[in-house]
Structure formats: C-alpha cells, structure tokens
Amino acid sequence: MFDYKERVRLLRAALEKKHLDAFVTSFLPHLRYLTGFSGSNGLCVITHARVFFVTDFRYKEQIQTEIACSRSYITRGSLVEMAAEKKLLRGCHRVGFEKEFLTFFQYQEHRKSFSAIRFVPTSDIVESLSSIKKKDEIALIKKAIDITDNVFSELLAIVKPEISELDISAEVSYLHKSHGAEKDSFEPIVVSGVRGSLPHGRPSSKKIKRGDMVTLDLGCFYKGYCSDLTRTIAVGNPSAQAKKVYQIVFDAQRLAIEAAHSGLSAKKLDGVARSHIRSKGYGGYFGHGLGHGIGLQIHEYPRVSTQSTHTLHTGNVITIEPGIYVPREFGVRIEDDIVIQDETCRVLTKSSKELIVV
After folding, report:
1. What is the pLDDT of residues 131-175, one digit of tens each?
2. Bridge partner residues of 73 (DSSP)
3. What is the distance between the alpha carbons of residues 225 and 235, in angstroms, rounded to a whole number?
4. Is pTM, for the whole model, over 0.90?
5. Chain centroid to CA 183
6. So what CATH class is 135-347?
7. Residue extents of the structural domains in the chain
8. Spatial strand order in the sheet of 220-222
9. Do 4-130 and 135-347 fold alike per CATH?
10. 3-state class of 51 per DSSP?
11. Level-2 CATH architecture, domain 4-130
C-alpha cells in the first residue's frame, strides 16, 4: 500500500506555496497517484483539510477497497456538478487545475458549476512529486521491466525471415499478458530494414528479410507502473555499416549511463551521448531526445533532451535511448531503464545489448 497521505501532504505544501485553497484533477494517472483509483472516470478534490473523490456507478464497488480519501461520491451525471451539489469547495477562493490536462469544455463546466471560485491554471505540481520514485514504486517498475525482458527473450525465437512486423507486434502484446502484465504501455514498435529509419514507425505488413536490422521497442504495465525497452537485432549477417552504427549507438548509451547521477542536468546527460554520436559523423541522424521519465505514464518527468530544463534527482527512473536513423537504409536504437542514485545510477533492464544475430 502506497503512502497516499504523504503524497497528499506534499501536494498541499505545494498548494500553500502557490496560495491555492484547493486542487482539482481528473487526469487518470494523477488520480491513481493521489488516491489509488485505477478506473477510467473520476474527479479528485483536495483541500487543505480533506480529500474528496467523485466517480460514476461503474466504480461504486471498486472504490470501496481501492481509493484513499476522506469521502467519496457516486453520480449518474456530471462529476463536476456532483462536486458542486455536495459543496466540496466550500470556503475555497483560489483553486488550482492542471492546464495541460483539463479540456476547454471541462474548464467551462468548472466555471459554470463554481461561479464564485477563481480557477488558477497550474503546471507540474503532481509531476514534480511523482517523478521521485519510492522503493515500492521502483519495485513495481522493475517487475514490469522483468516481464518485458522475458518477452524480448522469447521474441528472439519468433523474429525470422518472412514473418511480418504486425505479427511480431501481436506476439509482443500476447506475451506481455501471458507473463502477467496488464497491457502494453504503448503500441509496440516493430520496424525492419529501410523502415528502421522511422524512430516511431508503426508496425506494417512488411515481412522481415534476411539482412534486415529490426528495431523492437516494447513495454508493459504492471500494477499501474510501466517498462520501456528497445533493442535492435540483425536477421542474418548485418552489413559493415550497420555494425559500425550499432557500435556507435552502443558506446553512446554506455557513456550516458556511466555519466548519470543525481544533480546532473538532464540536458548535459543528453549531451554526453549526442556529442559521441556527433564525433562519429552521425549527429544529423539522432533527432530525438536521449530519454524520459517513466512510472505511471510511459512519458513522465524528467525529460532528457537538448531542450530540457530538468535536473536529475535520486529516485528518478528514466530511459536512456540514443539512436541513429539512416534514411532509406536502416536504424539502430538501444534503450534501457535506469534509476538515478546519489553518485551513479542502476540499470534495471537486463536484456543483452550486444548485437544479436538471429
């Protein structure tokens, strides 16, 4: 059981600094972080004294054992209207909402239902808390990673000439669930040969050919927490250029992992891998960020990129995933999940990073 009271205490401290009387959210990952709710429709109202939760009839039974709050309500209509009817924001004047996740329609509904309240747009309040993972959270992430590691191992017997990218993608989803995952944490990426230059290419009907480099990017959810793993393998003997590029990406990732520690700026960490790739003449072929945080979402804080303003802290769980994408030829990406520690980091993924030929 997570310490939801501590999470709410820290949130309230953040609200106090911003001179806010309360906070409302309906963003599902944040509902789960603050209350434990794993359903698809809910509204949480946090004041300095109480935590209220509103959902619909589908979750009446579920919330009795799942959520941590002062009082919960069930409605067959609008969650916001129910919150207004029960006067959950009584005595509040300035109420924070998450500007990235509240739609304009929902904002209008809040304003209409609570006409006397000033709703203040906020950003990063929950993200700044949830980006620091506790031991119990890291344990669940590690379990998700272990499942994905096992799935990758089984894929090595499946990837072969004449199987399609879509077939491999379907196997990923099936294997994740067969190993105990809730679901994929994103649609599996399976790109081969010339399609490997598409960093986030969707699986297609293209069949694997001998000589193809195949990039496999997969992850799953386990009890709400996710994994993210990428490996690029060769089907048959790879070309000399493919071997060269693979080694460059391999070394760039190794250097970044060796450099990662608490207190380092995420931008500088990105630069460690990027400068190595640039020094080998492939700087123009690495266009995305080095990594991102993972947890209850597949993309969380901190962002690790050339534009990042984040600093790494002990407890951050992030990906390290440099890549080189040669248009109309092939691509290579290697990705691991790591947890930031005071002086170093710990790699959570265990799948081999040596160039595997199947």
Report:
1. 999 999 999 999 999 999 999 999 999 999 999 999 999 999 999
2. 54
3. 32
4. yes
5. 14
6. alpha beta
7. 4-130, 135-347
8. 183-184, 220-222, 225-226
9. no
10. strand
11. 3-Layer(aba) Sandwich (3.40)
